[in-house]
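Thread: "does anyone have the structure for this chain?"

Original post by V.I.:
We have the sequence but no experimental structure in hand. Need at least a predicted one for the grant figures.
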Amino acid sequence: MSDLPHLQALQRYYKHHRGFPAMAKRTEVEGMSSGASVFGLVGRLSDAGYLQRLDGRVVPVKRFFSRQLVGRVRARVPQPASQEQPEVFTVDDYLIDQPDRTTLHRVRGNAMRDAHNVEGHPVVVEHNKPTKPGDIVLAVIDDELTVKTMALDAGGRCYREPANAAYAPIHPTTSLEILGVVVSVMRRVRRCRFR
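Reply from O.Q.:
Generated one for you, tokens below.
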């Protein structure tokens, strides 16, 4: 796609500013020489399914936030580089099944460390989803919000179990409400600065 560098410049700008630049600044951001060039680019990106015009404004659509998913890669024996056409893929496609019932919550503390839920990582929580022992859930226990593993004691009573031996299980004394099931954890293996 010949407009890829211009699209990437718009994506970088949108990442930092949560919106598009004013028309006067677009030539600079997109690396173009004139307003007519910018209008042409907007038309081509709209035709390609990255943007749309809405109430006189240009807004991004789902494909604008997509990334290239370039085949599979082995984790053990190296393989020849893929010649496949990349598919369009968004993080939402992978992490979220029910957008209208999904929220994100940032983990605090390390009580769920052994389940890979550590300080600062966002968890993806699906609400109104059936739960079972062993699920990691977002719950309100005695009026306090927490993320823990759902477990049953010998008497069949529900309690919450941490995933870190340094912490004790939590047995509710007055109330327990399960708000949703953690369906995914988002984590970085290396911190990157977006430029």
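V.I.: this helps a lot. The helical segments are 4-17, 23-30, 35-47, 91-95.
O.Q.: and The chain has two domains: 4-65, 99-185.
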